[in-house]
Design brief:
two-stranded antiparallel ribbon, disordered N terminus
């Protein structure tokens, strides 16, 4: 038997009926969407339970494999033992495949052992496709400033070693499942690409002569987007754990050498901006097609800005 509020789908979030929810609060058993999930020692709690408010409803019922964001539905896809939303699964798979290609086509320059290849990445694939504003490969100039615009995207799918890959994929999986369920595949894809290209823009503004790889800019954008959505709904990101997660990553960005400051902060700013624009568009009641176009327009704008900034490689705007 399912007890629910009048007019509310029992498989939607009790705070945001427009969002399907596949996760239950570990205390009150009510369904919660990505925007209401507060990290607990085991599973997640809803904001009401975190604040100490008594739960008014107990929900018991089967979990659905279909999640909805507004008028969009997200079918869960199963690949072997793994089940999740399609875009997030594809993004993780592409990153994993790109890393394996990097390893088996040479891995780190000068390292022939298996450990060297998995630990450090690098090699010909990174040189040919990593994010770079301007550089030299032998006698040939390479980079975005030389017309290799694809590097703005491909650099975000390469990684400098297995640990780098695993950290980014863990965060992408954790954040992506929730944001894709909240936004739907099309809008979530635009959010991810907008964050990635904003990170590339940040690199071109700060250090265009540094060869840069990693999905970190996109992941920082997803963190920022989730926090923006929570703050605009009156949920404390410190209570959900996202604020602490972001703070640790920002400190790590500045505290360890070799980290792309421009890539991380660019993705952070881009993801926050895209999330804010989408939220404003939703609250004004704009058609779904228009709100879904917002992140893609932002992504294109970041790409144009990155190409422009790469053309000023001799005098970086923020260098």
């Amino acid at each position: 038997m399912v007890e629910s509020q009048p007019g509310v789908d029992p498989e939607t979030c009790h705070r945001h009926p427009e969002n399907r929810a596949g996760v239950r609060c570990q205390r009150c058993d009510r369904r919660i969407c990505a925007l209401c999930m507060c990290t607990a020692s085991v599973g997640f709690h809803c904001p009401d339970c975190v604040a100490g408010s008594p739960a008014k409803h107990q929900f018991q019922g089967r979990q659905s494999r279909k999640q909805r964001s507004g008028r969009q539905s997200v079918e869960q896809v199963r690949v072997g033992p793994v089940e999740g939303p399609p875009v997030t699964l594809v993004l993780v798979a592409v990153n994993l495949a790109a890393f394996l290609v990097t390893v088996f086509l040479g891995g780190v320059t000068g390292g022939s052992g298996v450990y060297d290849r998995f630990a450090s990445g690098g090699g010909a694939v990174t040189v040919d496709h990593g994010l770079l504003g301007i550089g030299r490969s032998g006698p040939v100039l390479i980079g975005v400033a030389e017309g290799e615009w694809s590097r703005l995207l491909t650099g975000g799918f390469l990684h400098a070693g297995l640990l780098h890959l695993l950290v980014n994929m863990f965060l992408l999986w954790m954040l992506g499942r929730q944001l894709e369920s909240a936004h739907g595949p099309v809008r979530y894809s635009g959010l991810y690409m907008g964050s990635l290209l904003a990170g590339s823009f940040g690199v071109m503004l700060h250090d265009p002569q540094a060869l840069t790889v990693g999905a970190s800019g996109a992941v920082f954008g997803l963190m920022a987007a989730a926090i923006v959505h929570q703050v605009r709904r009156g949920i404390s990101p410190w209570g959900t754990g996202l604020g602490g997660l972001l703070l640790v990553n920002v400190v790590f960005t500045f505290g360890r050498p070799g980290i792309s400051i421009g890539g991380h902060l660019g993705g952070l700013a881009g993801g926050a901006l895209v999330a804010w624009l989408v939220d404003v568009a939703d609250r004004r009641g704009l058609p779904r097609a228009m709100t879904s176009a917002v992140p893609w327009v932002a992504a294109a704008t970041f790409a144009v800005g990155a190409v422009w900034a790469a053309g000023r490689w001799w005098d970086p705007v923020l260098g």
